[in-house]
């Protein structure tokens, strides 16, 4: 599956990219760069940041910035319509007030927002509460 994901996103297959992608697949929540670093054995920091940048540009992962928190990263859905750095997702970002973890939660539909005179290109919904594990 990892090899196919990289091929589908037209990313060169390297053992390091496979290892980084495996870290994302092993997590059911959004992760910080420090989590990736902790999971890797031996790595070059510049190569890691380039890999993350490539994954974002190709629509493999997306960034989540929650107020007062560090930037998190999460896998995109297989059918992510990524175009020029904008990811099209039909999910909300949920942050647990207890464990502080961030989750991408699928929803059947997002609200339709119409702002007369404005062009809306992307909508991001952030929700805070208590996750299933902490409840």
Feature tags:
135 residues; alpha+beta; Arc Repressor Mutant, subunit A; three-stranded mixed beta sheet; 5 strands
CATH architecture: Orthogonal Bundle
> Can you tell me the overall shape?
globular
Could you tell me the radius of gyration in angstroms? Answer: 16 Å
Rounded to the nearest angstrom, the distance between the terminal CA atoms is 33 Å
User: Please, how many domains?
Assistant: 1
List segments where confidence is low: pLDDT < 50 over at least 5 consecutive residues.
Answer: none
CATH topology, which one?
Arc Repressor Mutant, subunit A
DSSP helical segment count? 4
- Classified by CATH, the class is Mainly Alpha
DSSP strand tally: 5
Percent in strands: 15-25%
Provide the helix percentage.
25-40%
The biggest beta sheet, please? Answer: 3 strands, mixed
Run of helices and strands? HHHHEEEEE
- Rounded mean pLDDT is 88
Secondary structural class = alpha+beta
CATH superfamily: Winged helix-like DNA-binding domain superfamily/Winged helix DNA-binding domain
- The side-by-side strand order for the widest beta sheet comes to 4-3-5
